[in-house]
Amino acid sequence: SADGGANLNLDSIPMGLPMSDPTAWATAMNNLGMAPMGMTGQPLLPDFDPALGMMTGIPPINPMMPGLGIVPPPIPPDMPAVKEIIHCKSCTLFPPNPHLPPPATRERPPGCKTVFVGGLPENGTEQIIMEVFEQCGEVIAIRKSKKNFCHIRFAEEFMVDKALYLSGYRIRLGSSTDKKDTGRLHVDFAQARDDLYEWECKQRMLAREERHRRRLEEERFRPPSPPPVVHYSDHECSIVAEKLKDDTKFLEAIQTLLTWIERGEVNRRTANNFYSMIQSANSHIRRLVNEKAAHEKEMEEAKEKFKLALSGILVQCE
């Protein structure tokens, strides 16, 4: 049994072997008649630390051991998958020789959804082409030539890759061996205006979405705009004139007045109103300047008074 084999494996390893000997497990398995090599001819566990297995008492896992039921390692993605015979209703596809290099293809056009299919049987009809290639995905259109080739347009780009998988297959209609009923498929990317147009539309849409996203991002960090200044009218003019006389609303009113003047609202009809508003602003500013000067004078007098008081205190302290 597998367990018995594992125990035997452990018991038969001579403990005098140095722990750092990487061939210890392979030697032991070889003594037991087990294959220490994997499917590819390489050691199955080249990086296995024999000291770890010794300390824990666990033998190395070998997928080739009978009874363990461990799945062999998967095929690496760069290795070609083995192609199989494909049976369709009206025809059969035989895979190409796996030792031959994969068929060459042209450079993939942007947004490619169309493939060129050459090497079709002379008696191949659109129904047979549809039968073979609808396995790859939804077919939008087939444009068949009088010769042995056609163009097939799919609904999505990823379906083209599935169609290219069929390149190199030999096709045989029914069970006939007639030359007109056989052919070797050659599938390649095709350049189509519809594909390019759709791809460009998609790119423009993505660019628009990106611009919109950036604009929203910029607007999020932009400081808020000041409230818009109302348009001039006699009613608004009277409100601004009242605000110019109010200390708490003067700042808002003077900004409105300056904006109206910049907009060119001053004309022969409104000149008197603007003159009175400018007079109000001028008198307000003059009053502010006078108050500032009075406060500065008070400050100077307070400084002098402070100096005299401080010098008197210092004299007395001394």
UniProtKB/TrEMBL annotation:
InterPro entries assigned: ENOX, ENOX_RRM, Nucleotide-bd_a/b_plait_sf, RBD_domain_sf, RRM_dom
Family annotation (Gene3D superfamilies): 3.30.70.330
GO biological process: ultradian rhythm
Domain RRM: 113-192
Residue ranges that the Swiss-Prot or TrEMBL entry lists as coiled coil: 278-305
Keywords from the named record: Biological rhythms, Cell membrane, Coiled coil, Copper, Electron transport, Membrane, NAD, Oxidoreductase, RNA-binding, Secreted, Transport
Primary localization class, coarse: membrane
Family to which the UniProt record says this protein belongs: Belongs to the ENOX family.
Protein name per its UniProtKB record: ENOX2 protein
Provenance organism: Todus mexicanus
Originating gene: Enox2
